[in-house]
Amino acid sequence: MRVITPIKEMQEISEKLRREGKIISFVPTMGYLHQGHLSLMEEGKKRGDILVISIFVNPTQFGRGEDYAVYPRDLERDKRLAESVGVDIVFTPSESEMYPKAYQTYVQVEEVTKNLCGISRPTHFRGVATVVAKLFNIVKPHISIFGEKDFQQLVTIRQMVRDLHYDIEIVGMPTCREEDGIAMSSRNTYLNPEEKKAALSLYRSLKRASALFLSGENKAETILREVRNIIEAEKIITVDYIKICDTGHLQDLDIVDREAVVALAVRIGKTRLIDNLVLKPAR
Question: pTM of this prediction?
């Protein structure tokens, strides 16, 4: 496994691999890897000849007062985990090279970023789209794999790829969960035992939403009320949003008459967690 930091070196290696006819699969990460990340890498290994991952805590997707400074980092641990699943190249660019002095170019995906996390984190997806666009230009992948846990991010990247004519296949993979049902996230390390116990309500509420929908309930208001009641029974949780949206444009739905996503974000102590579950109408 090779570890590469200079952008120009990564570009030259990717160009050489493409000339050799190799299929490059790519998993962008912010590091502090967990099994959810590793599952994306395992999928990338199946789909390409060369698997590249990036480890870069991207400052432009953090808002003022968010956890950029304390976001968990452990590059040596990440390299061991990456090597264990067969990663070929770990790309670890520096912040100073990714965003040099006088940097001023950003990618803004408009409509699909306005709802959900875009309401309370208005600059977040501009940072996400920008860094992913830059990484695509550097790594030059044929395939890139993202987790469905960050559902709005996945929709945003797909929109950007369509709009900017990137010749890259975007693959979404199911959310990986811990044994107790909590969606795997690097931020789970912030939770103390009491907070982690409260966080179990998130998946429990999503399963309740699914059960209601499968039983024939299609009024979003009814489903959302049940979800909110389960979560707000945990007094240490503050809800950011709980919504049901269509999966293509992330617009709020009143009646669930097409594929939809139940998406939520909460704060437990100092930790912000997101989760979601897709509702699929019976054919």
Answer: 0.97
